[in-house]
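In keeping with the milestone schedule agreed at the kick-off meeting, the structural modelling team has produced records for the first pair of proteins. Each record is given below as a sequence line and a structure-token line. The laboratory manager (R.T.) confirmed that both were archived under the project's standard naming scheme.
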Amino acid sequence: MGMAPLGTSVPVGHMLRRCAANLRADIDMVVADTVRAVESGIPEYARPADEAYHRTLHAGVEQALHGFLGILERRDDTTWRDVYRAIGAGEMREGRSLDALQAAIRIGARMGLRHVVEFAESESLTPGMVGSLADAIWSHVDDLAEAAAEGYAEARAAEVGDLDRRRRRLLHLLVADPPAGDEAVAAAALAARWPMPRRLAAVAIAPGEVQTLPPVLPPDVLADPRHAEPVLIVPDPESPAQLRLMVNTLARYRVAVGPAVPPEAAGHSLRWARRALDLHGRGVIGGDGVIWCQEHLGILAVFQDEALLAALVERRLSPLAAMRASQREPLVDTLLSWLQHNMNANAVAAHLHLHPQTVRRRLRQLDRLFGERIHDGDARFELEIALLAEQAGRAERVRHAKRDEPAPHPAAARVTRPGAPAVRRAR
């Protein structure tokens, strides 16, 4: 014996429970109709050959309807929320947006509303009662979409975090000392979704700059700014796009860009970049903003082994050892310029802004001090290195001496080209 139609004075709660009972009796049919409508209306979900996917779609529709029943029956059942969070996460992992899922939810809502309208007509419900049922449906649709969006966002955040970890691991494999094996690096690059470039450059960042680094870097730049010695790996560093990145984005910070090298030599690029940062901090390499190692290769080469360099300076510049700084420095500048200008006194005078007679007088003094050593090819090579180191050390001493003065001073050293003296003074 069927239930009598509802009257216009029946409480809303009773009407909702009656609607729930009606829907529950037909739920298998409603689920099947909704699944067919979703599969025919949304190509992404039409997978007739994939039985497992069809069962997943069926379970999702069923959970949505049971969730709606819970609202009608005023039960505190939120199982459907966990299901739709998982569905949203699945959409993200399959590389889709939420558009298809939201369209499927709307199709399900229309199918449910169609059933509710039939129930309302059979029960002669008032427009107000029909409106209450429609509100319940669309409110549930919003809840389903919200749960799916939460799952989607959580899955994306987890994937981004995992990808960041993989990229940091790849970065440290690339610059490891001793170097990591080619197979390990290739596998890490694949896991990090990072195409291996033909050439790359390591960028060393001064630790004090970490907090002010730009929050967003291009996706192909590997970064670990929070490391004790922060570093970036920039692929194809000589391309116009990457040069713009380094000039425009990093110019405000104290960073050094290592030379472009093959991936297997990334550790060398980083070591040279960190060395350049150190020499910049000591005043040996001057300038503000980005330090380009390729512009300072001579100084970097000279300062690779400072103990050995000190021994070379002591040996090759021994004729100047007893002199005061005021005597020694003009002779160092003159002799270095003479060696660099093919022993042309007039060129030395022009370069140091001195009278040619002053240069010749100094050269005669140097000839008495050094004798044949300044004319011997092999000795001249070591002598030039020693003179470069002498000038660079002088710049560093000047910088240290001026640190405690109240007025700011420009950097004492300026290297204008690879192998150029750090300081040039005219005496």
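The second protein of the pair:
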Amino acid sequence: MSPSCPLMPVFRRLLPCLFLLAAAPASADYSGHPKAQELLTQLAREERFSPEELAAVRVALTQAEKIPKLVEAEQKAAERTETWTTYAAKRVDAPRIENGADFLDENSTWFARAEAQYGVPPAIIAGVLGLETNFGRFTGSARVLDALATQGFDHPTRSAFFFSELREFFVFCRDFKRDPTEALGSYAGAMGWAQFMPSNYRRLAVDFDGDGNRDLWTGADAIGSIARYLVEYDPNRSWHRGEPLAVPAVLEKPLPATVPINTSRTTHTVAELAALGLRATVDLPPGTRVGVVELQLDQGREYWIGLNNFYSVMSYNPRVYYAMTVSLLAQEMARVDAERNIAR
């Protein structure tokens, strides 16, 4: 082919695509994995998959790609590697606060309905959406099939959890009539604006807009589903209407080494922590169940007292930084939204 051939420009445009294809992960053909038969057996026995549906699962497993970077992303999540100073500064920033205030205003009807039905304030729901997907702007670019197959079959420490979610994903695809090779989500297999794992999608997603579909790639259903999640996911950490998440605290003396810090549930009463040396800076009933929240700053530490709703948010993501950021982002979005309403 001569340089003047009219196909040459097309060929040059295709070269980057060819290189990308050559560098792409090869199909792992997980249908031959030792645990594949266990998956198929569970789907047949516990989920009543028909022979035709099991055959479709086998085909999907042959198309799944092993992507080790997804495991690395899960192991190096920011909540595990950054200080609170860095983590919060990246997420409670002016653009996200402004976008969140816009989102609160644009979806005020759905937020009001969610609060009336479940008791969760609009700004808290928006805080979760802001952290998870920047209010629906980025819901993930990894194929859920690849994420869950890679981590369910090959994760070094959490394969049992992801294997269970892989099974739930195939049930989700059957029941929601989704092609398992097309759904996109996070590196961990979370889906939609609300970033629900498949098991939670099946159990807790709601059709909030009444269109006949539980579609977490829509704002209304995501808003209602997050509110329901915080109330129903774990009855022991169910959202308490009208209560805050956390309050600042002063450490008056070193806590005993036996005091649990940054747990996922309440551990003491307000009075017990005060006696141990951690005092809330606002009045709380002495018998209120709370926990110790310690935030690692670039220099030093900061202390808060977490109430039930703090741990309700931690049921969504079991990281202290996450729950604190939801709380702070919610406060800032609510403040801006209120200021705008006053100015109107």
